[in-house]
C-alpha cells in the first residue's frame, strides 16, 4: 500500500484554493477551545413513538445517551456523535488543511468547486461558506458508498459565525449512481455561555420505500 501511495502523482497545492477554504472554515461556528461538554434531557420522537432520557456529550468519542429503546438509543448516540464531530474545536490544519487543495470555476449555482486531493472529496463554496460537500467512502470489507450534502440554510451566531440549520444528504452508489437514501435535516440551537448547543433536530428520510420522520428535542442544557 505504501508503494501505491508513492506512485501516485503529487498535486500542487493552490494557495488561492487554500485561502478560500480557510476563510470558509474560519467562518464556521464551532464550540470554543475551552469547551468541556454538556448534559441535557433528550426526547426522541420516531413517527409518533416517544422515548426520553439524559445525554452527556464531552467529545465525538465521549457521548452517552440513556433511552428506553436500544435501537433508538444507538441512533441518537450516533447523531450526537456526528454533531460533536462537526461542532468540536479543531484547527484548519487538523481538518481539510492537511490535504492538497485546488479549485475550478465552473459557473455552478452553489459556487466554486474545491477539490480536496487524497480524501475522495470535493466541496462547493460561495460567499465564504461551504454550500455543498461531495464524498466517496471506500474501506476494506465494506461496500463503497457516496453522498452529497447540500447546505440550504444557515444562521449567524453571536460570534458572527455561520451555523448550518438546514441541509439535505443524498446517499448513492459510486459505481452505478443509484440513489439509496435521502435525509433532510432541520436544526435549531440554544446559546449557553459561549456555545451554541443543539436544541432540536428533525430528520425526514426516505429509505427502503418508506418515509420516516425523527425528531430530537434537547432541554435543560448544562455546561460541564
Give short descriptive properties of this protein.
single chain, 224 residues, alpha+beta, twelve-stranded antiparallel beta sheet, 16% helix, disordered N terminus
In words, what does this structure look like?
By secondary structure, this protein is an alpha+beta fold. It has one domain (about 10-224). Helices cover about 15% and strands about 50% of the residues. The protein has helices spanning about 1-5, 15-25, 70-85, and strands at about 40-45, 50-60, 60-65, 100-105, 110-115, 120-125, 130-135, 145-155, 160-170, 180-190, 195-205, 210-224. Strands 3-2-1-12-11-10-9-8-7-6-5-4 form a twelve-stranded antiparallel beta sheet, with helices on one face. A hairpin with a 2-residue loop joins β6 (about 120-125) and β7 (about 130-135). The longest helix is centred in the middle third of the chain and has 18 residues, at about 70-85. The protein is globular, with a radius of gyration of 19 Å. The model is unreliable at about 1-5 (pLDDT under 50).
The average pLDDT score comes to 91
Q: Measured on Cα atoms, how large is the radius of gyration?
A: 19 Å
Q: In one word, what is the shape?
A: globular
Order of helices and strands: HHEEEHEEEEEEEEE
CA-CA gap between termini: 43 Å
Q: Give the spatial strand order of the biggest sheet.
A: 3-2-1-12-11-10-9-8-7-6-5-4
Q: Determine the fraction of residues in helical runs and give it as a percent range.
A: 10-25%
The total strand number stands at 12
* Strand residue percentage: over 45%
Class by alpha and beta content: alpha+beta
Main beta sheet strand tally, sense and closure: 12 strands, antiparallel
* Count of helix runs: 3
